Amino acid sequence: MDMDSMSDMSGDDTGINKSYAKGFWYLISAAIALFLAIRAVNYIIFWSRLRRSRTRSVIFPTRPTNQFSRLWATLTAVAREMSYPQFYVSIRNLTWMTPPPMGCIYILMVYWAVVVYMIFKDSVKQNLEILAYRNAWVTVTQVPLLYLLASRTNVIALVVGTSYERLNWLHRWVARTMFITATAHGWVFWYGWAKADILDIEFDMMGNMVNYGLAAWGILLWMTITSFKPFRSMAYEFFVIQHILAAIMFLWAVYVHVPASARYNVWFAISALCFDRACRIGLLIWQNLKFRPRRSCCEGGQWIGHQTQLSPIGESITVLTIKDVHFKWRAGQHLYLWLPRVAPIEVHPYTIASAHQMPDTCICNSIQLVIRSHSGFSRRLNHFARKLEASGRKQTLTAMVIGPYGHPPRWNVFETLVFISASTGASYTLPILESVLNNKAPSCTKRVDFLLAARHGEEIGYYHERLLEAIEKAKSVGIELAVYIAVTGDGQLGALGALSFPASLASFASHEKKTVEEEVRASANTEGIAQPLMSQSRSRLSDGSEPHVHRSATRPDVSDFIRAAVEATGGETGVVVCGGQSLVAKTRTSVARISDERAVHKGTGAQGIFLHVEEYCF
What we know:
Rossmann fold, 12 strands
């Protein structure tokens, strides 16, 4: 006897369960359509900003100009203030229990409300078996969503305009929700059978079905437990391998356990899994197999893979220069790296640390990765690079790459950009800065504040030269750039050595003479908007004679750093942070608090604050 037959005997209509399953996907589609609509409106607003930026008479092109854009800006500001804050658990060894930011929590609350409604609607009033079957349908209905969210070729992310890894948190929480509903499904059956004293009869009738159901539940339990951060961090390579195998075994167990009327969910998940794997394999072949390598014009040209140069920086950093890549990328994207000689079966994601072709490389496209040594692959890679360096052999090997992945925002639509990075987090923020400075298209950006903090000087020494080049470039394109370097370890600031600056930078301080008050006053005269909160001059960031590089041995106050930039601008500010969980949580909460205190887009004239977050953890 299968589940459909027993369902009919118990008085439950399988059609009702299917209708709830259909309604679930209607709601998912509606949510995706909502985010798509928001994306479309923002695209139009950003396009309008860039068009106005070409007009010299418009001082602040990022300000809303009509009733609709003002209303949209107010709704956006309220949504940001509600969604940005994040509580950080600072207790040692328990930081992994830090909850998601409030925006994610709101989404989860809505999701759970839908799931609870589907479970209990018209089921509790009847009998336990109806409730058990309803939990089964709710569980299996979520399976396709779980596998869609796990895909790198993520259709949902593509439609809503984000990146697959930024939906990974939802993938984990959907899995945990499925575990709860699956547990409720089995427990209600077990409780009802035990109460009626028919456990033996039911096991005789449905022995195989129950066994496969218990197997699927056990696999789901294992994947749920091992997905928590402490277990992922123990041996990430092992976690990935076993997680893939467990995901395949779970689909097989669910397929055998559920009735034929519900197996379309399993086939949906299998299709998503196969499509994702096919795209990965196709991308791997297309990007690493060259039938006509250009050996004459590029020393990195070869048939398979890419010639990669290793440059160890002490025991903590390894810089990889990957030559002859025949694809384009955007600042803020990442790729997957496979080095068969170092790790034959391991593929790891790393941020592309260069926004354009790097100097002193071949004339074809080349990209750089900055890999900090932690454990496992990154430590073995650093040891391998130092061993090659010590032996005097050529420090090159063949690398395979897959990517680029990621959907970073448009950076040139903000008047002020604030970059906050910790240690190798500059591998994410610095390419964005370089892309803004080298952008030939119209741009709204006038000012940039760049903060780089680390415990050891060695961790950020690699970025010094590029930051100096960025300052010189900013001067030539008329963008005001201030760089703040904080090395908090005892005596580590001196390890950076004396910074030398080009003589041409000495005149850059004259760019500070025009204060923001003058710009705001001129804008208020032309647009009729009062600016009572924008009264601080940005010239206080420099003493008028030193170039815009500030060094410190103390831990920077992130909130004060953001506030100084926000109060010194007349348009919208974009804040980009890349670092550990504590830095990210602090930045999230600070941005929300500053926006609330300044009453952004609520009649005070204070302009919006956008936040983009990139964490170390994947």
